[in-house]
Amino acid sequence: MRILVTGSSGHLGEALARTLRDAGHEVIGLDTVEGPCTHRVGSIVDRAFVRRCIAGVTTVFHPATLHKPHVATHSRQAFLDVNLTGTLNLLEEAVATGVESFVYTSTTSVFGDALTPKTSEPAAWVTEDMAAVPKNIYGVTKAAAEDLCQLFQRNQGLSTMVLRTSRFFPEEDDDRTVRARYTDDNLKTNEYLYRRVDIEDVVSAHLLAARRAPVLGFRRYIISATTPFQHDDVAELRVHAPLALRRRVPGYEEIYAQRGWRMAQGIDRVYVNQRARDELGWAPRHDFAALLERLQAGEDIRSPLARLIGSKGYHGETFGDGPYPVES
Known about the structure:
Layout lengths: L1 E5 L4 H12 L3 E6 L8 E2 L5 H8 L4 E4 L13 H22 L3 E7 L16 E3 L10 H20 L3 E6 L10 H6 L2 H8 L7 H18 L3 E4 L10 H15 L3 H8 L9 E3 L2 H7 L7 H9 L7 H6 L19
Parallel strand pairs: 1-2, 1-4, 2-3, 4-5, 5-7, 6-9, 7-8
Helix pairs in contact: 1-7, 2-3, 3-4
């Protein structure tokens, strides 16, 4: 099977390309920069380049994008060009060449302001039924590209799926105050309770989506680690997350105390992956409980694939105030 992977020099693109290659597939990796899994260097904004790359392809995985870290360094027009025009180019050429499945990597950032309830409100219980309220050009273009995918499924018969992934990047948090309060492993382990996922599980979700798209039709799924919390916990999570966690994951405190780690006092959202597990048959392996087991065994919290891919960064330069500049 010949498979196209966009953004193949990035975190998810390389992880997909490596996994598919190891499974015996012919992979065409494209990116604007060179990388170990990139075969064609160019931009998805270039329609002729896309046409050359997609010839003979049966499946397209499309994680290439301008991300949140680019909001402060790239123009809004650049976001429109890459995230919308680039996606449109891929969709139109996919129809022209007879692609069987098209999987678009979106983000939980499309929910935007809906993810931050008012101080007096409980934590947001985030499912696919929540309305998207994008708060920057990144979220706007990702949400619009999702709609393009749905349009092509409905009007052109292209089997498409959208996966809204939560955090899987290995870089440090962009918030200086958060970095000062938690060690990096402490923060990331906390996030597996409500807003993070391991890249190995993201890859497995993409492979299932490609397989199931022709059968299920257009779907949007949240791809995040399975939370131990229940909907009944949302009020308590907002004001006393450790108490709710003590009830759901007894014994976590001892493991944290051994490392001098902290649990967040309040959690403002919980991403719920139930629909992807039910409909795709997705079985994510990496959750908070699994990480605690690794910590007890003295192991790395990251999966082998996450360690292999490592940190890619988002810019060709370094910044003294954090992993990337934040829009004011």
